[in-house]
Amino acid sequence: MAALKTLYSPKGLVHFSVGAIIKKGDRILLIDRAVPPLGFACPAGHVEHKENFEDALLREVKEEIGMQVFGYKLLFEETLYGNDCNKGAHNHHWIVFECEVRGDERKNREVKTIGYYSKEEISKLKLEPSWNIILKKLKIIN
Ligand SMILES: [Zn+2]
Question: What is the distance in A from the centroid of ligand 1 to the CA of 35?
Answer without folding.
Answer: 14
